[in-house]
Amino acid sequence: MDMNDRVQKVLDRFVESGEEVGLQAAAYYKGKLVVDCWSGIADENTGRKVNGDTLFTCWSTTKGWAATCLHILADRREVKYDDPISKHWPEFAAQGKGAATVLDALTHRVGVPQLPARIAPEMLCDWDGMCRALAAMRPKWKPGTKVGYHAFTYGWLVGEIVRRVDGRSIAKFAQDELCKPLGITSFFLGIPDRAEKRVAMFRVEPPPPNAPQPNALALAAMPRRFMGSEIMNRPDVRRASIPGAGGIMNARAIARHYAMLAGYGELDGVRVLSKQTVDKARSVQVHEFDLVGNRVVLRGMGYGLGGGAEDGGGPALGRSRRAFGHGGYGGSLGFADPELGLSFGFAKTLLKTVPDPKRASAYVVAEEIRKALSGPK
Hints:
Layout: H1 3-17, E1 22-29, E2 32-43, E3 48-49, E4 56-57, H2 61-75, H3 85-88, H4 102-106, H5 127-136, H6 153-166, H7 170-182, E5 187-188, E6 203-204, H8 216-221, H9 229-232, H10 235-238, E7 248-249, H11 251-262, E8 266-267, E9 270-271, H12 275-281, E10 286-290, E11 295-299, E12 304-305, E13 324-327, E14 333-337, E15 342-348, E16 350-351, H13 361-374
Parallel strand pairs: 6-16
Antiparallel strand pairs: 1-2, 1-15, 2-3, 4-7, 5-7, 8-9, 10-11, 12-13, 13-14, 14-15
Helix pairs in contact: 1-13, 2-6, 2-7, 5-6
């Protein structure tokens, strides 16, 4: 049984058991697409099935793409990681944020994880309004001194830095400088009307009783009313650029993005980043307690790192701290493992909290691929 068949069996088993509703998985090995599978239902209301072209809202999996956009500008020396954000975005210096750096934005150290008070869903769709609100915010801590996951605000921070440095919106920059060179046609920061019929409808499963309860700062960063299907399935939200949590994509696109990173910045003869920048981006920048996540985390420059969960790493990304990528709320995932030559993309419709990371569907599927690569014991 080849690797694709093995993964297909795992996806089908998840759907048949009722553990999942609709899934996609894709993987590249040494620059070649070796897994391209899907199973289940894309829309439970109509019975529309998932296929290879189905698009999914992948929440924070989008953050990895936003980070790559910023690394492209750093690679070209158009921005430096130690630049104050206010060098490029002067208004951001308000309320004591003048010393916050580009690196702070990538590593969740700026101190503004919270969404504006009394925010309406429509404001998520207002790029300029969100950036004005962020610039006017008082940070929860002195920038650069503590870590707290910027669940939504990361996207406007990184995206506005990209726009101020380059002039293009991050949505257009991602298409021009990342997707087009790599032949990626199924990633959007705001879908065009023609893509609507391809987008899956997701559903959020209530967390199990043993799931950790969010603290007050987490609820400010991720208000419960914004974490359900009612808002993020809305047509206007789907058409908005929300790089922290609202990218719409498929598993093929995720895996191809990370295949470039697994190739140390190159795929199919197209170089997007230098090897030096890829290695810098996956170097350990954060290994400490996260005030929003309420646990120790291990992160690089805009990406999570592999390793043991007990050490702050993401087991689904790989056993090595040199593997890197980003997961999304409810279970989507993308990662690159350059030493293994592997990249992976995973998207799904049933969003759920799984307290044990090694029981998450993305981990199980990625582990099946790693087992297949390692061969018989």
